[in-house]
Amino acid sequence: MSAPAAAEPLCLADVERAAAAVLPAAVRDFVAGGSGDESAQAANRTALDRVRLVPRVLTAVAEPDCAVDLVGTAAALPVAVAPMAYHRLLHPDGELATARAARAAGVPFVVSTLSSCPVEEIAAEGADLWFQLYWLRDRGRVRALVRRAEAAGCRALVVTVDVPVMGRRLRDIRNAFGLPESVTAAHLTGGAASLAHERRAGRSAVATHTGSAFEPALGWADVAWLREHTRLPLVLKGVLDPRDAVQAAGAGVDAVVVSNHGGRQLAGAVPSVTALAPVVDAVAGRCRVLLDSGIRGGTDVLRALALGAEGVLLGRPLLWGLALDGAAGAELVLRLLHTEFREALLLSGCRDAAAARGLGTVTLA
Questions:
Q1: Residues 265-269: what's their mean pLDDT?
Q2: How far apart are CA 146 and CA 173, in angstroms?
Q3: Count of H helices and E strands in the chain?
Q4: What gap in Å lies between CA 67 and CA 2, rounded to an integer?
Q5: Would the pLDDT of 7 be above 90?
Q6: Across the chain, which distance is largest between two alpha carbons, in Å?
Q7: How far apart are CA 136 and CA 267, in angstroms?
Q8: Which domain of life is it from (predicted)?
Q9: 107 within domain boundaries
Q10: What residues are annotated to the active site?
């Protein structure tokens, strides 16, 4: 009697488990790991689970509308693919495959500065693109990246502001992690790019490379300079303090992403979802607010909306899907998320995302 076929994943956790079984340990650790003791990463999940929703009833909703506008980009659900480095570590098609999945799902794809495929090739896949910008030591290279993103048709710029240095990720250090020669930072060729491949005991080659390339002293004057040099919507990712969110709104920023970088930067940082409501209250509609870090299902998306976010960025689950089955695996992740979010809207009595933002919540002690 033949063995039963492996069951298709039914949730994002199933996808992660299946991907973990097929990935090399060092690559799995690179994706899964956090900084320091990884407590910030664990706290993201714990804090989300403590947010309980108060559903409405008798709202006469039979078919909820999942579609939203995300910072000027139409999206089939309130989700964008978060910027993540080096997708070709997970699958040979890399970001091209992830972009195909984003296009099929109708959600924006945020291309990382550390993408392993160039933005021009990703744009050819037809997804709506935003471009994530790490601030480089050479401002001329920053300007060139911005112009390149604009020319490729990117619809927003996402500046990551919580990486003056890369957080100390112990798994990568223990693994002496470095990129294989077949994977490169497509937008950072030349110069010190080879550092990302130079494996040495007791260090992360990826951290060495970013330390040489990234500007550690990014400040509000740089944000003002960028605001003057692009007409694209400007999003700051990595905001946790309401005071920074208020200053961002005053600087002409269109949106902030409340994020602790998936627990990969400051090891003791507050969980992103815990910081969300205070940021929403502080900006009082002067800029839009998104949430990142720890999203693992449709109920998490609904939690974010109920706490005031307009949408979320989804990270690691897309990489697990990519590792499992390329574009089809990433598309499966987004399809599962859409199914779960639609059901969450229906079960909570919400007609659409706007109604979800009016849901009550209780945070358990």
A1: 96
A2: 32
A3: 14, 12
A4: 43
A5: no
A6: 69
A7: 23
A8: Bacteria
A9: yes
A10: 261
Given a cut of 80, whether residue 163 has pLDDT beyond it is yes
Is 282 part of a structural domain of the chain? yes
Token duo for residue 303: 């939690």
Binding residues for glyoxylate: 132, 134, 169, 261, 264
Mean pLDDT to the nearest integer, 331-335: 98
CA–CA separation, 249 and 145 (whole Å): 24
What is the distance between the alpha carbons of residues 242 and 254, in angstroms, rounded to a whole number?
15
pLDDT above 90: residue 3: no
pLDDT band at 1 (very low <50, low <70, confident <90, very high): very low
pTM above 0.90, yes or no: yes
Quote the radius of gyration of the chain (alpha carbons, Å). Answer: 20
Is 129 within the bounds of a domain? yes
Q: What average pLDDT score do residues 29-54 get?
A: 97
Numbered residues of the known binding site: 83-85, 112, 132, 134, 160, 169, 237, 259, 261, 264, 292-296, 315-316
- Tell me the mean pLDDT in the region 4-29: 91
Burial of 335 (0-12, 13-18, 19+ CB in 10 A): middle
**C-alpha to C-alpha distances, 28 to 21, 48, 180, 240, 286, nearest whole angstrom:** 9, 23, 14, 27, 39
CATH no. for residue 79? Answer: 3.20.20.70
Token pair belonging to 134? 């790490």
Share of the chain above pLDDT 90, in %: 95
Cα–Cα dist 359/344, whole Å = 12
Host domain of residue 215: 12-358
Average pLDDT over every residue of 99-109: 98
Based on the structure, what is the number of domains in the chain?
1
Residue 250 CA to residue 162 CA, distance in Å, equals 19
Residue type, 293: S
Domain assignment of residue 6, yes or no:
no
Strands 68-70 and 73-75, bridge-based pairing: antiparallel
